[in-house]
């Protein structure tokens, strides 16, 4: 069995319905955030790590990591 898996490119995926921030840790480059997510397909993702840099937060025009996570996951105000 191979140690490396070939990436598969898909046209689209399922939507994230909700997410919960479990833990945030600041590092030299930004934040590492631990999340649980509920997907539109009915599945759940638990213990997902998301890295957000300080540059990402600046691009989202916020200093609030919770707002940054929301924007990074595609939850924008209409």
Structural descriptors:
78 residues, 2 helices, 18% helix, single chain, alpha+beta, 3-stranded antiparallel beta sheet
3D architecture notes:
The protein is of the alpha+beta class and 78 residues long. The protein has one domain (16-72). The chain contains two helices and three strands, in the order βββαα. It has helices at 54-59, 65-72, and strands at 16-26, 30-39, 44-53. It has a three-stranded antiparallel sheet with strand order 1-2-3. Strand 2 and strand 3 (44-53) form a beta hairpin. The chain is globular and about 35 Å long. 5% of the residues are buried. The mean pLDDT is 90.
Mean pLDDT across every amino acid position:
90
Low-confidence stretches: none
Order of the strands making up the biggest sheet: 1-2-3
Helix-strand sequence: EEEHH
Q: How many domains is the backbone divided into? A: 1
Structural class: alpha+beta
Describe the oligomeric state of these chains in a short phrase.
Answer: single chain
Apparent shape: globular
Main sheet makeup:
3 strands, antiparallel
Strand content: 35-45%
Our measurement of the CA-to-CA distance between the termini, rounded to an integer number of angstroms, reads 47 Å
- Rg value: 14 Å
- Percent helix, as a range, is 10-25%
Count of DSSP H/I helices: 2
- Quick one: how many beta strands? 3
